[in-house]
Amino acid sequence: MRRGGQRRLVQWGFGLAAAGCCAAAVVWCCCPPPLEDAARFPAGVILRDRTGKVLRVGLGPGDTDCRPYYRASVDDWIVKAVIAAEDKRFFSHHGVDLLSVARAARQNLTTRNRISGASTITMQTVRLIRPHRRNWLWKAVESVQAVRLERVWSKEEILSQYLNRAPFGSNLVGIEAASWGWFGKAPQQLNLGEAALLAGLVQSPTRFRPDRYPEAAQKRRAYVLERMERIGLIDARTREAAFRTAVVLLRSPRPFAEPFFCDWVQNSFAFASGDHTTTLDPALQEAVTRQVARQAEAQGVDAAAVVLEVGTGAVRALACSGDYFQRPAGQVNTATAPRPAGSVLKPFAFALAMDRGQLTPGWVLADVPRRFGADEPLNFSGTFMGLVTAREALILSLNLPAIEVEERVGQPLFYTTLRQLGFDALKRPAAHYGLGLVLGNGSVRLIELANAYACLAREGVWRPCRAFEHACSGSRGSEPSRERREGRRFFSEGACWMIAEALSGDERARDAVGHVAEVDLPRFAWKTGTSSGYRDAWTVAWNPEYVVAVWCGYKSGRRGSERLVGKRIAAPVAWEIVRQLYPAGGAPWYARPDSVAEREVCAVSGRVPGPLCVRRVTDWALRQCSSCGICPVHVRDGQGQVAERWPADTAAYLSSRAGGRPEAPGDPAGGLKVVAPADGAVYRIVDGLASQQVVFKVTGVAGDEPLYWFRNDALEGTVTGGSPFLWMARRGTHRFVCANLAGDSSCVTIRVE
Predict the structure, then answer these.
(1) Domain with 333 in it: what CATH number?
(2) For a designed S-S bond to 187, which of 53, 179, 302, 731 qualifies (C-beta 3.0 to 4.6 A apart)?
């Protein structure tokens, strides 16, 4: 019996041992280290400028300030202090400290209460990576995972994970957040006393919080220092010096620099939490901010500017005037807010027309009165130039030639191209904007405008702008398409070169900024724009390296003033920024593409000369368009003489001018007739413009006969020889009658608003 009992006991012992081994094997196989969870670091967002300076810290999960990523170094005081406070045998055990387990078991059994734990730093790391309930079962699982974690990670990697996940009081998670949050410095810069205080926080971040319980925090710090001395990390003299050194808390707010730029980044790009280096250049940002603020204060307006690097698409500066925290409109980001475009969209229409063989720089366009339904557009000056080259029309930003170019291209194509260039603020259908789109009756964002002009600066290739130094810096989603990586071509190199050549030049630059001749200005192409009602003033300047875009206006959208003219108020800011980019003056410029060649054109029309074109000049054109546009102007009249044939509205305008061109054969010439303005035309008086005249023109005039002009049955003035009649505009509805001595007359009715 006794022997049988012993035998059965041994058998039970072996059975239990085998079951234990099987259970251990199951636990070992079913409890791998939480490597996948470790890769998902629960951090907030840190945005840095391109030099590494922190711009903004965003809160992470649970509204915690968790800033990655600290890499543990055994030379740092914080590492030594944490090892002393939490796990003195960390570098000698393999995940579980058996001596600590035995000590904790003896103390807990003796007191019949849990007064001591045996969790190593590795075990705490497992719990921080994969939180779970605290009981004996999970303790066993945690131990197995800790042992396995030690087999794949180095001690430094485990320490790094621990220090980046441990709570340190308030809402601070991780040593980076704790060090900056409590002391305003990096963990590597902590002195011994500061490191000991933070190391003591880990055990109970609430009970030892230094701002609320300073005495408890100091006692805990003293304990950590004593532990460091006891295990040989410091000597008594060092401990005493650290203990006597006062620890000064510096609870500084989280960094919140360059708020308009950071808002744009966070609102415009999809990226994961973590530490991100942006494209912002701090020196350039400071200079741009200063120029924007100076102009805003001097002119009493709001202003914004964007500087974009052409080659990379990187936004190097984005600045807005005003106090971000000032209510009610302080946080309105005028670099991203939609605003009426004015004339800054015209170069895109001209580039499209050039590529389609519908325009060259020397092509002659008509800047004459034309009516479009109920509208009769005017130029900014309120006058017309007659016949101008496309180059002149673009430089002077003339409205009627721009509409003619848009008509040739086709307004739907122009609208679609703008949308594809990134003008997302053009949300309505193309028909809503009509031909006025090229004049700026749609809204654009300054950042969109800068990136679209970068397409011209990049010789026709469009790419999305960048906010991060590295394209894949924490981005979410799939890899960007090849088109987005390499760019999409919208315009030819030749068209972009001809646009840049037309809108650049030393004299033009000096005219805008008023610099003395001795100043060496970098060569930049530039275009201005002014929206209706003087509400928005724009200037965009570019060369092969940079695009500088400037907006001036009012955040509130209130009625503008005569100061808000692109050339007058936005251009000086753009050129001061340009000078910041090139303080020595020299700047690169484009080489003429092989696709552009010099050719002979008719001096009158700018087209390919026909057999009747006598006067000829040379001009640039795309080689593919060398035969496009045979001169339609020169024809033979009924007597076999060479004459100029122009469209009726152009011919009427030219004939009304002193020394005008010969009338086109076949155009109606007999009978007194008012040809401009059209009957029912509506004019608008622009506030602040000193001289605003309406020009009246007639045909059918015999020689130098006098013409009498009546307004509302009262004589208004007399002219001779078909000269135009100029009338100073006044609000109201007016009926004008032109009559001669023979009794012939013609009348029109106009309205001035």
Answers:
(1) 3.40.710.10
(2) 179
Residue with tokens 């040989």: 232
One domain, residues 577 and 622:
no
Residue 417, in any domain of the structure: no
Question: Of 26-30, 126-130, 261-265, 567-571, which gets the smallest average pLDDT?
Answer: 26-30
Q: What is the DSSP string of 655-701?
A: HHSTTPPPPPTTS--SS-EEEESPTT-EE-PPTT-S--EEEEEEE--
CA distance readout (Å), 704 to 145, 321, 659, 719, 741: 107, 59, 13, 9, 12
Report the 10 Å Cβ neighbour count for 106: 11
Q: Which helix (H) or strand (E) holds 749?
A: strand 745-752
Evaluate the CA torsion angle 699, 704, 708, 709 in order and state its sign.
Answer: positive
Is 375 a domain residue?
A: no
Any idea which of 223-237, 297-311, 326-340, 349-363 has the lowest mean pLDDT?
326-340
Q: Give φ, ψ of 355 to 5 degrees.
A: -70, -25
Sequence-distant (6+) residues with CB within 8 A of 349 are 402, 405, 406, 409, 414, 438
pLDDT at 666: 33
**Inside any domain, residue 381:** no
CA-closest candidate to residue 612, choices 632, 629, 598, 627: 632
CA distance 353 to 346: 11
Closest by CA position to 163, among listed 122, 191, 132, 130: 122
Q: Which residues share a beta bridge with 549? A: 306, 540
Confidence grade of residue 134 (pLDDT, cut at 50, 70, 90): low
Instruction: Give the torsion sign (CA, 287, 293, 298, 302).
Output: positive
Question: What pLDDT sits at residue 238?
Answer: 92
Helix (H) or strand (E) holding 696: strand 693-699
Which pLDDT value is given to residue 663? 39
Dihedral angle sign, alpha carbons of residues 275, 278, 280, 281: positive
Instruction: Dig out the tokens for 734 from the structure.
Output: 């007016």
User: Cis ω on the peptide bond leading into residue 187 (within 30° of 0)?
Assistant: no
How confident is the model over 204-215, as pLDDT tens digits?
998 999 988 999
Say which residues have a Cβ less than 8 Å from residue 193's Cβ, sequence separation at least 6.
221, 225, 242, 243, 245, 246, 247
Both structure tokens of 672: 């007194």
Answer yes or no: do 44 and 82 share one domain.
Answer: yes
Peptide bond between residue 69 and the one before it cis (omega within 30 degrees of 0) = yes
Domain limits for position 686: 668-752
Per-residue pLDDT tens for 151-174? 888 889 889 888 888 888 888 888
- 448 by DSSP, 3-state: which? helix
Query: Are both 454 and 587 inside the same structural domain?
Result: yes
Q: Which two tokens stand for residue 49?
A: 């400028």
Minimal CA–CA distance to 360: which of 644, 634, 631, 626? 626
Instruction: Name residue 724's amino acid.
Output: P
The 10s digit of each residue's pLDDT in 385-433 is: 889 999 999 998 999 999 999 999 999 999 999 999 999 999 999 999 9
Structure confidence at residue 104 (pLDDT) = 58
**Cis before residue 677, ω within 30 degrees of 0?**
yes
List the beta strands (DSSP E) in 416-473. 443-444, 461-462
How many domains would you assign to the chain? 5
Beta strands (DSSP E) in 647-692 are: 673-676, 682-683
- Return d(Cα 496, Cα 670) in angstroms, integer: 46
Q: Which residues contact 62 (CB under 8 A, 6 or more apart)?
A: 171
User: What single-letter amino acid sits at 197?
Assistant: L
Q: What is d(CA 157, CA 150) in angstroms, rounded to the nearest whole number?
A: 10
Alpha helices, DSSP H, located in 153-258: 155-165, 175-183, 192-201, 214-230, 236-244
Residue 644 belongs to some domain of the structure: no
Asked whether the CA dihedral 392, 395, 400, 401 is positive or negative, the reply is positive
Lowest-pLDDT range of 12-21, 263-272, 342-351, 517-526: 12-21
Same domain, 702 and 586: no
Residue pLDDT, tens place only, 621-634: 998 876 677 888 88
